[in-house]
Each structure stands twice: as structure tokens, then as C-alpha cells.
TrEMBL record:
Domain Metallo-beta-lactamase: 23-234
Organism: Halobacillus naozhouensis
Chain coiled-coil ranges: none
Pfam families to which the protein is assigned, alphabetical: B_lactamase-like_C, Lactamase_B
Protein name: MBL fold metallo-hydrolase
PANTHER family assigned to the protein according to its UniProt record, in alphabetical order: ENDORIBONUCLEASE LACTB2 (PTHR23131), METALLO-BETA-LACTAMASE SUPERFAMILY POTEIN (PTHR23131:SF4)
Length: 326
């Protein structure tokens, strides 16, 4: 069992996910005679078994969990929200934007998969791979249903004997939030800052088309705050938050430069094929590689470092404006 006590009597719990990052870290935190939970995990057997084991081992009655804060709508965080709500009877809170995305992306009658397939094709992904990406996404949607009852997060949560400030930090998703405690200088930072992996910043239909700009602003927001520990949702907790933020900004700057240089009348797919050439990507990974490439290309275009045009079929090409990139 992947479970650690954190300062102040809460628990950091690694729940398995069927992805290379292996775990999503959820937090079970005391609040008077009950608990609150931050994030729930991905909806599959191994994760549900892990939770049963955690409740047994800690002798925590699931009914003593009174509130669940789901930091964003991604399946590794929100997938088990319905199951957990059934088990605990707890209220589930999300930011309004991601509450809406839950329904739009995973709800019944969703057209998100078709829109992603369309986006892929427009950016040069071959038809066969575009449809594989859509099939994979469809399967994931099925695992997300039924959706839980979700309330809009409209209050500063109270747990561990203090009130936690909600910081809206879009970029990784439009409605992602962190929970910050100034006195303790701690933040539950979800997927905003991670170590050693870097958070995926992607463009999706129906969401912000300038997520990298949003992400930069969110990082600046956190960088201005005194923080001793960031409790992250993947990898290790981070103690050198400001340095890690600088590294993340540098990582995206490098990637922007690389893509700017590659953009010599190419599609996002052609650019991504070079950037990710060292890896043999599955359709699921291609979806993220493409969405991340498009996010960087949107940034470059908005910053007037590249321009785009469409051919007669509507395929989008990218061209850098300055020939020499330093
Ligand atoms: Zn995420
Ligand atoms: Zn995550």
C-alpha cells in the first residue's frame, strides 16, 4: 500500500492508475470528527481495491468522509468520484468550468470524441490514427459514467484545523484549482507543478485555446506565495517550489523554441512526429502529444512568432515568422 502520513495528521495515498505515472496521489485529511478527501482516482478494479485496503488499514469508516474536492475533470482525479460518492454519501465540489467539462466530455450523448477526431485531422493526423484516438477516448468515456452529483466549489474548505484558500489555477485544465494555507505555507497543488514529470498543457475542443498562456499566469500566481511544501498529485511532494516553477517555464520555453524552428510550413502532426520521434506512441499518447503540440503552436501564433494557413481541405500549416531562431 502506498500511504504516507503528512504533517498535520493527514494521509497522502497513492492510488494506482493504468498510465506510466503509476499513481495518483489523493489526500485524506481530518476535519473535526470527520474527513475530507482531495481527488479520487481512476475508475478500475485496482484503484477500488486500493481504497478498500486503505479504509481497512486506517480503520476509517467511508461514511465519515463528508466532502470530496475534485481538483479537475481528468479521469485519474475524477473517475472514481461517482463510486466514492456512493460509498461515502459525501458532497463533491469542483470548479464551475470543470464541472461543466465533466458533463461535456464524459456525459451521455457527448460529442467530444467526434470533435477531437476532427481536430486531429485538421492538424494533419492521418485518418486511421485519428479514428484510433477517437476509439480510445470513447472507451475512456464509458468508464467515467455514471457521473456523480457535483456542486460548484463556492467556499474555502476547512480541514486540518484551518481554512484553505481556493486558488483557481487554469492551464492544465480550465477549472483546475489548488488549496493553499498561508499560515502553514502548504499547497495541495494537484497537477499544476509536478516532479519529476511535467504537467501536460493541451488544447481541447470546448476549452481554452490558449492554455499555455493560462498556465504561465497560474505558475506566477503560485510563485508569488510563500510555500514550504507543495503536495502534488503525481511523483514526489515539492519543497523547492519556486525553482521547480522556473524549471517548468524553461521546459516550455525550450519546447516553444524547438517547435518554432521546426515550423517551416508543416502541420502540427509533422512537428509532433519530429519532437516525439524518440518514442513509440500509443493512440492515447498520440492524443496528448498532438494536443500539447497544438497548445505550443497556438502560443507561438498568439505571440506572432508563427503564422498559419489552411489548404483547400482545411488542413492547418504553421510557418515561423523569423527564419533564425536563437
Ligand atoms: Zn490532470
Ligand atoms: Zn493527474
Amino acid at each position: 500500500m502506498n500511504l504516507n502520513k503528512i504533517e498535520g495528521n493527514g494521509y497522502r495515498i497513492g492510488i494506482p492508475v493504468p498510465f506510466p505515472m503509476k499513481y495518483v496521489y489523493c489526500y485524506l485529511l481530518p476535519s473535526d470528527d470527520s474527513y475530507v478527501l482531495i481527488d479520487t482516482g481512476y475508475n478500475y478494479g485496482k484503484a477500488r481495491e486500493a481504497w478498500e485496503e486503505v479504509f481497512d488499514q486506517l480503520t476509517v469508516d467511508p461514511l465519515s468522509i463528508r466532502a470530496i474536492y475534485v481538483t479537475h475533470f481528468h479521469p485519474d482525479h475524477s473517475g472514481l468520484a461517482h463510486w466514492m460518492q456512493q460509498k461515502t454519501g459525501a458532497a463533491i465540489y469542483m470548479h464551475a468550468s470543470d464541472r461543466e467539462m465533466m458533463d461535456r466530455v464524459w456525459g451521455k450523448g457527448t460529442v467530444q470524441t467526434a470533435r477531437i477526431e476532427e481536430m486531429m485531422k485538421k492538424h494533419g493526423v492521418p485518418a486511421a490514427l485519428s479514428s484510433e484516438i477517437a476509439d480510445h477516448m470513447d472507451k475512456m468515456s464509458q468508464q467515467m459514467r455514471p457521473l456523480p452529483d457535483i456542486q460548484e466549489l463556492d467556499h474555502d474548505p476547512v480541514f486540518m484545523d484551518s481554512s484553505w484558500q481556493v486558488l483557481h489555477t487554469p492551464g492544465h485544465s480550465d477549472g483546475m484549482f489548488c488549496l493553499y494555507n498561508e499560515q502553514e505555507q502548504k499547497v495541495f497543488s494537484s497537477d499544476l507543478i509536478l516532479y519529476p514529470i511535467t504537467p501536460n498543457i493541451s488544447v481541447w475542443p470546448g476549452a481554452s485555446q490558449r492554455p499555455l498562456h493560462d498556465y504561465h499566469l497560474s505558475l506566477q500566481k503560485i510563485k508569488r506565495l510563500p510555500v514550504k511544501t507543495a503536495y502534488t498529485a503525481h511523483g514526489e511532494p515539492i519543497h523547492n517550489v519556486k525553482e521547480r516553477i522556473d524549471e517548468l517555464i524553461e521546459h516550455h520555453d525550450q519546447r516553444l523554441k524547438q517547435m518554432e524552428e521546426l515550423a517551416g510550413g508543416l502541420t502540427a502532426y509533422q512537428i509532433a512526429s519530429t519532437v516525439f520521434a524518440h518514442r513509440d506512441l500509443t493512440p492515447h499518447q498520440w492524443r496528448f502529444a498532438m494536443a500539447e503540440t497544438i497548445a505550443h503552436l497556438h502560443y507561438l501564433e498568439e505571440e506572432k512568432r508563427t503564422r498559419t494557413w489552411k489548404d483547400h481541405e482545411g488542413t492547418i500549416y504553421n510557418e515561423h515568422i523569423h527564419k533564425t531562431v536563437t
